[in-house]
Amino acid sequence: MTATPVIFIHGLWLHATSWTPWADLFRDAGYDPHLPGWPGDPDTVEEARANPESIADHGIDEVVEHYADYIAKLGVQPILIGHSFGGMIAQKLLGQDRAAATIAIDAAQIKGVLPLPLSALRSTLPVFKNPANKHRSVSLTAGQFRFAFGNALPTEESDMLYERWTIPAPGKPLFEAASANFDPHSPAKVNTENSGRGPLLLIMGGRDHTVPESVTKATLKQYRHSEAVTDLIEFADRGHSLTIDHGWREVADTCLDWLRAQSL
What is the pTM of this model? Predict the structure, then answer.
């Protein structure tokens, strides 16, 4: 029997290889893990930091098509697991019937979601403080990463994760998401009314500064007109780093349990 492919989709400021522990766990569980980066992503963290221009100016639609092309070459619908903006990308692909199921972890705000908490604004300030960043890549300082990702962690662990996994990120997706509710053709729009899609699990961290729980709860409401499975699980004491910090295994095991409950 052929193993079901699972595509892990990273978000802004993390390299695709940050999913490596997840890939090992899912491989041991009988899945076929894939860790493709975004368009322009170099193969390593070091290369990405050395070549930030390769990452710049890639928008949501371009990233979605990049992963759609990757999926088409598989010849079978995969399971998608995305974090942050990767969670938005995964939801768009699920709404397009390109996935068997999707797990969106602390997923970025989709069109129609109205809450904009102050902590989310502060987390993205490094990008929005300069309009020219729409076409640039932007790096975080260790302190900015600590607020946006590592606020629920000891400072030492946050700084370690920063040094290990962070890369520059394109500003364009954040500008596109910020204007989504004013743009009838926004690339942040997701087909939330698709009742024929595969199951969706939304995961939120109760202490997340970048994607506060109010955003994820509002995202869940966007799916109210779909009859497809849409579940929500909260990790009350976790921040935006929950896929890479010391507690990643609890989140990953929860994802595996949910997939088994969906017979996937």
Answer: 0.96
